[in-house]
Design a protein that fits this description.
Blueprint lengths: L2 H16 L14 E7 L2 E9 L4 E3 L2 E2 H4 L3 H13 L6 E8 L3 H19 L4 H6 L30
Helix pairs in contact: 3-4
Length: 157
C-alpha cells in the first residue's frame, strides 16, 4: 500500500467517525423528537427517542390498543420502511375520532417526528406518503334531507 492510499483511508475513517448522528445530537427540548398528526377528527402527539423498540399508544402497547391488524400493520410500516424498527422508543397520545382515524394520525405524526429525527429519511417518508396530510373529512348534513347525500323518498302521488 502506498502512502497516499493509507492517508486516504485514514481521512475516510475520520470523516465517518466524526459524522454527526441524530442520537448524538439530541434536540433542545429534552431528548425527544415530536410530531403531530391529524386525520378526520383524530389528533396524535408522537414522541420518539433512541431506545429498544417500545411502542405505546395512550399508555398501552400498540397491539393492545389497536384490535384491527390492518391499523397495527399500517402504523408499523412507517418504521419498517425507514429501517428504524426496534431502534426507537415511540410514545403516542391520541384522542378524537375512531381507531382508523387515530391510526392515520399516528402515521402522520410518526412520519413528521422521524423527519426531524433524521432529515435524510425525508425522501423515503415523502415517497411513501407518510408526510402528507389526508384532507378528507365527513361531509356535513344538509337541511331538508336525512343525511349529507341521502334524500327522503320521492312520492309522485
Amino acid at each position: 500500500m502506498t502512502e497516499d492510499q493509507q492517508t486516504n483511508e485514514a481521512t475516510q475513517k475520520v470523516a465517518t467517525e466524526t459524522k454527526p448522528t441524530p442520537a448524538a445530537n439530541p434536540p433542545k427540548d429534552g431528548h425527544w423528537w415530536w410530531g403531530t398528526g391529524r386525520r378526520k377528527a383524530a389528533v396524535a402527539r408522537v414522541r420518539i427517542k433512541p431506545g429498544t423498540g417500545v411502542f405505546n399508544v395512550n399508555k398501552k402497547d400498540l397491539t393492545e390498543y389497536f384490535s384491527e391488524i390492518r391499523d397495527h400493520k399500517d402504523v408499523l410500516s412507517v418504521l419498517e420502511k425507514t429501517n428504524t424498527k426496534g431502534s426507537l422508543d415511540v410514545f403516542v397520545n391520541t384522542n378524537g375520532g375512531g381507531y382508523t382515524g387515530q391510526a392515520g394520525a399516528i402515521i402522520l405524526g410518526l412520519g413528521r417526528a422521524l423527519a426531524k429525527f433524521d432529515p435524510s429519511l425525508d425522501s423515503t417518508l415523502r415517497s411513501n406518503g407518510y408526510l402528507s396530510r389526508d384532507p378528507r373529512r365527513v361531509e356535513r348534513k344538509k337541511p331538508g334531507q336525512p343525511g349529507a347525500r341521502k334524500r327522503f323518498q320521492f312520492s309522485k302521488r
